[in-house]
Amino acid sequence: MSRDRLRGALLARCREDRIEPPKTTRIERVLGAAEAMFERNFTTTTVQRLSLESVGKLEELIVAEAAPAGVPAGGQDAPQGDGQAQAAAAASGGRRAFLQELKEDPGPLQLETLLAEIVKLERVKAVGLPAALFEGVSEKVVAGWRARAMKMYPSDFEAAAPPVRLTVLAALCQVRQAELIDGLVELLIQLVHKISVRAEQKVEGELNAEFRRVQGKNGILVKLATAALELPEEIVRKALYPVVGERTLEDIIAEAKANEKELRTRVRTKLRGSYSHHYRRGLPKLLKAVRFRSSNDTFKPVMDALDLLKRYDGSDADFYAAAEAVPLEHVVPDDWRDAVLDLDSDLVERIPYELCVLVALRKAIRRREIWVEGANTWRNPDEDLPADFEDNRDVHYEALSKPRDPADFIADLQKRTWRRWTG
């Protein structure tokens, strides 16, 4: 909580208890003492919850990695990484400290970024922080300690008292772990969309070029439009058929349908090629790094499909075994069935099926029907309320600028609505 909010809470308590508030200097001393006491209790509790192994791993984060002579440890002794720091570290030829990498945002939208973020997440998980490390602590408090760590130099960590150093490093790792998971989910959503859009754009461009080579279609369209405008009250048979014959119109419709089918077929082919030759190698690593969950039975087929993909990780088989119960409903769209099911053997082909699973997963995640364990943005929707909401309702209602009394809330809403209606 900021010093201003603490000061406001203290003055409000004085008014509530009918106590004359102290002078400004006294208030500042009281607030400073309260902050120091909170920090002392918070850091002590945090360190007590850490295992010896986790303490060692956290201390290792500020140990400088090997670097050439004349180059600061970690490539750049900077509080927060950016592209310039990465370039300087690369030019120096030295390995940058993981603490520096941990502070950096993901790179461009590509498979290599996804793989790099997975490696980063695995290294954070290896620290072994307990899941309940900050249980009972407001997310804003933990986020504040994370922000504090982002601004610190390695020398600042070394100079800090051990409880403070371990707490600030633990907060950084805990929050960054959730942020890395969120980032991986965002990358998954964007990459699936990217390869789909690219495939559609390429195929549409090819078909449009072929469509323009067919003679006469533009002229036919002009004739139809002219006849329709000149004879708006006339029936179709009398107004349009004399201009363009019925058979010609039937041929145009048949060709358009054929083009639509050809579009879907070519898009599937492009998607398959792009996915199998480049993006597919990232899928097993992503499924190992991120745990998807769902509380909605409707999306059980998608969850079962993800389990199936995990079981076949490392397999060279082109098809799933005949004995496998491969979920198709809510996973494979109707226009993909022919691409997924082999007509001769009736087996499910893995590559197109994996694509369908990724698309279904993307849709379910965006609707919050499937959530991600350990994430923040994409966490279980049931956990959206702050952990301390029940204990600190007054604080949260004040932060939202909302009254606790429902009658006051309704009255204010009615007043504002009526003001809009009446101008």
From TrEMBL:
Domain of life per record: Bacteria
Name this protein carries in UniProt: Uncharacterized protein
